[in-house]
Each structure stands twice: as structure tokens, then as C-alpha cells.
Task: structure prediction
Amino acid sequence: MKTTLVFLSLLALASVAAAQTKITGTLDCGKINQQQAMEVGDKPGHILGLAQNKCTWSKPMEIAGITTKDEVVTGSIDVSGNRGQAHSYAVDTVSNGDKLTIRLTSTVEMKDGAPVSEKGTWTFVSGTGKLKGINGKGSYAGTFKADGSSTGEAEGEYTLPEKK
Result:
């Protein structure tokens, strides 16, 4: 049951992107730090779960001259059979210490109770400091490894409010 929640490591793949320009970043996530899963009880294999994970940008994305550094992802998943629907939030720390909050929605493909791949979309919720007022969205996709870690790619676009 716990391995079904490894997907959350990829939920971190919602990231930042250059203004009106699609860019791709690579995110590497270790094993899940915290997780809880429960059988729903209505049919075999129907599981609801919560998890939190930490990730690092091996190929950072750049926004307004600063780059993504690391990310903490907290989310939920509803797994039934070989597919799960995930909803999460990622909080990114960027190179100057500012933060980004991102909302993610995805579909996770499963095999033998373990996640294999994930595809989804992301939207900026908020930013601090230089990233205050950020607006944008994108997509992400990733794969899971047998050891519970994952790697993924994210792309998208953003805008920042004009300076007054």
C-alpha cells in the first residue's frame, strides 16, 4: 500500500517557467518522507492516501533571473485498480530564498500496486519576494524507479506583474 504513494514524489514536478517561453526542468525525488494509506473497503485495490516528499531540481528552471532549487510536495491520491488521481501542492524554494506555491493535478499509472508513470498539469498559486503576483501554468510527466525514487520533466510559462 505504501508504494502506491510514491507518486507524490513526482507531484513536485510542477515547476516554474520562463516568461511566455516554454522551458523544461528536471526534478529528482527520493523515497517518500511521510505517507499514510487506507483501503476504502468498497472494492479490492481502492485506496486513499496522503504523502509528503522532498525533491531537488537537477536541471533548474529559471524565472526572472532566479532558479528553482528544491521542492516539498504534499498531496493526496485516490487509487482504483491500475490508475490513481492525484491532487497536490508543491512549495519550491528558489536560488534567492523566495518561495513558489504550485497546485498540481495528475493521473498516475500503476502496475502491481506500484506507480509506474505520471502525467499532469500545474498552476502557480502564489510567490514571495521577487515572485509575488506570479501567474502561469504548465504540464509535467515522470517515471518511477523500483527503489521508490522518481524523475520527471516539467514545462510551462509564467508572467509577473509589471513593476510600478
About this structure: Confidence is low (pLDDT under 50) at residues 1-19. Residues 45 and 81 are 6 Å apart (CA to CA). The beta strands are 23-29, 34-39, 46-59, 62-63, 66-80, 83-94, 99-111, 114-127, 135-144, 150-159. The first helix runs from residue 8 to 11.
